[in-house]
Amino acid sequence: MGCYECCMRCLGGVPYVSLVATLLCFSGIALFCGCGHQALTESERLIETYFTRDHQDYITLAYLIEYFQYIIYGLASFFFLYCIVLLAEGFYTTSAARQSFGEFRSTVCGRCLSTTFIVITYFLVVVWLLVFSLSALPVYFFYNMANTCHTINILSETPSSINQLCIDARQYGLLPWNAVPGKACGMTLSNVCKTREFFLIYDLYIAAFAGAGMTVLALIHCPLHLVAWQLVFRERHRREKEDRRLHTLFGRVLNEQRGSLCSPCVLHAADV
Questions:
Q1: Which residues belong to the signal peptide in this entry (predicted)?
Q2: pLDDT of residue 105
Q3: Measured between alpha carbons, how far is 77 from 29 in angstroms, rounded to an integer?
Q4: Do residues 239 and 56 lie in contact, with contact meaning Cβ atoms separated by under 8 Å?
């Protein structure tokens, strides 16, 4: 076997679909965990600086942010291992499918593991759809904040009207209702929107939202690919059983018709 044939054989065994899903999942998790962690840290500073005066007003939010950051650490570790298993499953499935037309037979244990992996992936899809929906909430908050600031800049010539334009963090559940002031209005809000921290946090939440979407796409893409290979295996197994049944039936017919299938020219002792 030449070098070219060897390279083509190796490239033919690469599970490109699983490889794309793995890279997409890695990228999505990296975006979501990295950008989400930094965005939560910056959000705590922003709310502490512009929306509250008492440390006790945002202590609950600070604890929640800390818990979410620990969850992000766990997600990053879990999906690092999950993506490795995903790629290994892709290699196993692709190799089994490519060799199933030869001597190879996929084992019952292998099919059971693939089915279990598909079920786990479907469960993760449901979980990440929820995460994807929740990650849209901070994007919505900062989008409304940016639109309000844009309106304030347009109406800057009428100070009496812009003071009525506010963003109340208490309405979004970020602060308790007794927090003072709990909101930013008028030119104060406009100055907040002009800070570097605001644009940084807004971009980080958008990136985290995009990362969650990429992870959902990867998790949906993966089970569809595995289910397709499962159908290929099942159809191949059905055909093999049918071929064995026909072969056994044909063998029985040959045994029953052995006498009639013998040559009619029988030698007798008198003819020798």
A1: none
A2: 47
A3: 10
A4: no
